[in-house]
Amino acid sequence: MEEKIQQIKFKNFTWTNIIQAKGKEIEYLRENFDFHPLDLEDCLSPAQRPKLDEYTHYLFMILTFPFYEVKNREIIASEIDFFIGPNYLVTLTDGRLTSLINLFRQCQVNDFLREKYLSGGVMQLLYEILNKLQIYCYPMLDHISHDIDKLEKAIFSGYEKKMVKEILIIKRNIVNFRKIMQGHKNVIKKLIGKSNKYFIPQESIIYFTNIIEQTKEIWDILESQKETIEALHNTNESLISFRLNDIIKILTIISVTLLPITLVASIFGMSLTFSMPLINHPYGFWIVIEIMIIIMLFLILFFKKKKWL
């Protein structure tokens, strides 16, 4: 329990960070803080969407941030729950977001960083956490852009069939990223709207306005990536369809070319009582072969004249 519940006390301010909260950790919050039972229940179950709830003495906020799962090559949502009070901040996380964990550990061991991030109060610390979590998003966006560039080169190098799975993986990650980030702007706007709270200083609004601007920037990048991957998807499907049509056309031409040859072979392969032409001719076999070749050449020339080949 001591490992999951960690605290930093600085002057009259306390930052409590809880990793992978379960029954004992929730019971600790119930005993030491006057939080609403519904909020504590929300901390145990994955949230469906970001939100901000207001109470007389604290704010409860849920946000999700992207986490890249290397094994499945998938971007998934990692939830953070915030209890924001006048002289405390409680964060609950699943332990995936290293930027939050690193910030907490740095503040534990570094007096300068503890002074820098905690001396400004709860809203200053909250801003630093959100800012670092958003900055953490940019390398993932760069990685997606890099994957799109590689994908584009592979598509136009003749590997369009192999790229179908890659396109779907990237599209899934972009969709997941958008779902994770889409509620941030409204929640932060609601938070700014709570500036009437006595523990939210007016000067902190400009900092959270910057968070909103970063959210818009991330959303614009995702929108651009979404349009690009959809265009590449359509291009890839067109290339596959074109090649498939090309193959079907070639097979059709081969079938049409062989059809009259097969007919000639079938006629001369009949076992009839009357004498067939060229049957007793000393060069009958080679004459029939020549007839077949002439028919093939005629059809090939005909197809070329029609620009079917």
Which range best describes the helical content: under 10%, 10-25%, 25-40%, 40-55%, 55-70% or over 70%?
Answer: 55-70%
Portion in beta strands: 5-15%
User: Could you give the order of the helices and strands?
Assistant: EEHHEEEEHHHHHHHH
- Give the rounded overall mean pLDDT: 86
Looking at the structure, what is the overall shape? rod-shaped
Most strands sheet: 6 strands, mixed
- Supply the number of helical segments: 10
What spatial order of strands do you see in the largest sheet? 1-2-6-5-4-3
- In the CATH scheme, the class of the largest domain would be Alpha Beta
The CATH homologous superfamily of the largest domain corresponds to: CorA soluble domain-like
Unreliable residue stretches: none
Short description:
This protein is α+β, with helices and mostly antiparallel strands and 309 residues long. The chain has 10 helices and 6 strands; from the N terminus they run ββααββββαααααααα.
Descriptive overview:
- This protein is α+β, with helices and mostly antiparallel strands.
- It has two domains: 5-242, Beta Polymerase, domain 2, CATH 3.30.460.20; 251-305, Methane Monooxygenase Hydroxylase, Chain G, domain 1, CATH 1.20.58.
- Helix content is 60%, strand content 15%.
- The protein contains ten helices and six strands; from the N terminus they run ββααββββαααααααα.
- Strand 1 (5-10) and strand 2 (13-19) form a beta hairpin.
- The model has no long low-confidence stretch (mean pLDDT 86).
